Amino acid sequence: EDVPSQAFDNKDYFCGKETFPVYESVFTEEGETIRKIAIEIEKPPQIEIHVWTIRKGILRHLYVEKLSKREFEGLPYFKLITRTTLSQWKIFSEGEAQISQMCESRVCRTELEDLVKVLYLEKSEKGHC
Length: 129
Fold this sequence. Notes:
Blueprint (H helix, E strand, L loop, with lengths): L12 E2 L2 E13 L2 E10 L4 E10 L2 E10 L1 H5 L5 E7 H17 L6 H9 L12
Antiparallel strand pairs: 1-2, 2-3, 2-6, 3-4, 4-5
Helix pairs in contact: 2-3
Main location: secreted
Organism: Oxylabes madagascariensis (white-throated Oxylabes)
InterPro entries: CHRDL1/2 (IPR045717), CHRDL_1/2_C (IPR045716)
């Protein structure tokens, strides 16, 4: 049997799993930091944006919005930071829910930074997965 090529539609793969682009936007206004983490999903074609409002290191507000790719392309400030798999994105989303409860009343800078690191895929050694 032929092994299917992994070169369809210019998609990247990591250990045989499809990866999706992840974007970030961080800006500060009126003493609050607004940090947005976005993933571009193929099916349905949309952008899922997780918005964190952080004041003095405390996560004050967290919500998720979904946009079309066209709407997203019109937004300023987003930069591509990595590509990730859907399984890593699920870990990120679940961790985010835990952190949002944990960090309502205490400073959580390191927890938030560590959560974003989950999205970065570690390169496998010599192609072994």
